[in-house]
């Protein structure tokens, strides 16, 4: 179908202000938060109702037009990158909280509702929505479901998949399906799990029923300072080994500490090799005991200083430093590239030192700030896109980090998704048979591959070519892995 | 172990050639659960593929082969002060890890800690064509590729032979205490909801025969503080009580010819059904033992109206489907998925739904 005909038909479904097609109107949608990938779509649609989305999907299905969903565009892997021959479907206007049921501890929300807005709305009932990505003031719950997003507190409270009960989803044909239930399970396959983290490839989510939790009575934070990064890594394992599951456990290295201190003066020790933030929450009496235990373990693990936040203001300040790590990176470097590998905790120290060596090899600085309790690394590679060749260097450095994560028994992405970015690494992490099955699952939902085509699951062809290329350069990274 | 694996793959390939339906058989403890097998189905015993592959307590993860005895696995965890927090029901000594995942059943802690699917980190499996594949991993977070691992939970052996699974484990609570209250079903339901909305360390609830049981788990300080707020009598045999609910050895489950399992929205009021009920999961799970003949449609209508579904857990089926039928669109997606995993349709056909 011709572009102008497509736009004409979209305008027949939607009011004029819901269809964008002038280049300057499309610009804001050309990328997500991984801005190295940019692409203008044929058009952007901003529907306000599910009924409108159904008609849009029916049109696209009939005319074989690719559809890329978009929440807030804070994704870090290019998942919401538009398709050149497709439309971008923004869910931002479906931003209503349909119902909060405080007795059932559930809320029914539209996909464009911001993550934090759910907790704010539930707050007056003493409830909250637990997964708290750092981007929570901006990112949407629909995007969270598509990426299975995590947050600082997911070690104890789980990821998105653990905190949603039910989804209303539209298939590419425009059919409505409901997966999951207001009950705790439903008959048939666990499609709720399959759809969570499926990166907009299987269906369009139009309503989410989330689980709400009672706000803990009390929360307390310990900050431990280390003169040795490896010791900080061991301290993480020691806390968990002792039988404590902290509400959050975050690690920052020296470069991060300096960048954060320059930015917001959180009271971190600039000389430290690492700072570990460890939070306990629960009933007041329990928190007091747990904090004492944590303090003891951290000292025994070699912390040179252990401070308990004196009051709520100081607790917030200690956290503010961690939460400002990304913008702080933006202040000390023109550009940064955020990685997302996850490894077994026991390999933390070794993998961090490997990253340090790569940093020297590539002559690019790398900040380490991450969800230590989960072993989810977020190396931030600092570079300058205006220096010729630096972006490529940063990407190669990043790819090497992901290879290290796979070799350590981990994964290329803990919470940011594969998107456009990690397609090549998917060839390394999975065999042909496994990727074939992924493609088959995609086909079971979307036989014509119209939903977010080209993302998340690489084609067999791409992986075969990549394998050939690696051999061609005589430096196959994983000779033991089958390729064809 | 590799020769056992080869024999499974061989069995699958041969079955495929002959269109011979197979029943993947673990310990047999949950044999009763599911629709009757298709005619001429032959069993494939998978218990030989067993053993712990990797367990490091500080990683909060264990990897074991699917034929591993559930009892043995839980003993090993207990030695390190850890547990499977979804409290899988055993229903008999021979229960295996694989059968527990495939049946997707979780015990009393489910409403408070999560279900079996919530603790799955990764799986290794043979699909219907005998191809070996791995999904997920041993790490806590992993979003590479579709979540095939969790899809295996509750799939009743229809998608592949589960070979190995990695599960998240949790430390055993420092202290557990069970409180008991004499009350009516209506009041018990109200109290269960009220507890759920407050930050209390509740880890299980059950109403049966005029008594509400509430288990508190956590640090001693928390359990003691919560008990002060809640009152009630301390049940001395708390641990035995919860075991009996978990494994269905409680007298409520004795000698029942028919047992329905209704999974409903937790705030659902008392369901008017002719017979006895035992309630768990803060109101979200209702076990129903009919005292007289009751139409399956009526049970399912009530469950659906309550935001859930009803399973004919066991008993004379008389043509009644065990699992609540799916909507046409969902059924279509199920059939297409099944087709991709098991093109010859040889794995546990009919077990879940008559259509596949
Ligand atoms: C500063 C910063 C900090 C971050 N911190 C974290 C963090 O701590 N933890 C974490 O996990 N992530 C984090 N992220 C990543 C990002 O915020 C999450 O992935 C988030 O869930 C994306 O939500 P979004 O609404 O922006 O989705 P988008 O970026 O718009 O889209 C993401 C994907 O979801 C799909 N999608 C969106 N809505 C729908 C829908 N309704 N139906 C179907 N598919 C849909 C899109 O097609 C795309 O594939 C961070 C990002 C930034 C920029």
Automatic annotation (TrEMBL), chain A:
Domain FAD-binding PCMH-type: 37-215
Keywords: FAD, Flavoprotein, Oxidoreductase
Any one GO MF annotation of this record: oxidoreductase activity
Gene3D superfamilies documented for this protein: 3.30.465.10, 3.30.70.2740, Uridine Diphospho-n-acetylenolpyruvylglucosamine Reductase, domain 2, Vanillyl-alcohol Oxidase, Chain A, domain 4
Domain of life: Bacteria
InterPro entries (UniProt xref): FAD-bd_oxidored_4_C, FAD-bd_PCMH, FAD-bd_PCMH-like_sf, FAD-bd_PCMH_sub1, FAD-bd_PCMH_sub2, FAD-linked_Oxase-like_C, FAD-linked_OxidoTrans_Type4, Oxid_FAD_bind_N
SUPFAM superfamilies: FAD-binding/transporter-associated domain-like (SSF56176), FAD-linked oxidases, C-terminal domain (SSF55103)
Cofactor(s) essential for the protein: FAD
Name of the protein in its database record: Glycolate oxidase subunit, FAD-linked
Species this protein is from: Nitrosomonas mobilis
Lineage of producing organism: Bacteria, Pseudomonadati, Pseudomonadota, Betaproteobacteria, Nitrosomonadales
Gene this protein is translated from: glcD
TrEMBL record, chain B:
SUPFAM superfamilies, per the entry: FAD-binding/transporter-associated domain-like, FAD-linked oxidases, C-terminal domain
Sorted UniProt keywords: FAD, Flavoprotein
InterPro entries: FAD-bd_PCMH, FAD-bd_PCMH-like_sf, FAD-bd_PCMH_sub2, FAD-linked_Oxase-like_C, Oxid_FAD_bind_N, Vanillyl_alc_oxidase_C-sub2
Domain (FAD-binding PCMH-type): residue spans on this chain: 1-172
PROSITE patterns: FAD_PCMH
Entry-linked PANTHER family: D-LACTATE DEHYDROGENASE, GLYCOLATE OXIDASE SUBUNIT GLCE
Name of the protein described by the UniProt record: Glycolate oxidase FAD binding subunit
Origin species: Nitrosomonas mobilis
Classification lineage: Bacteria, Pseudomonadati, Pseudomonadota, Betaproteobacteria, Nitrosomonadales
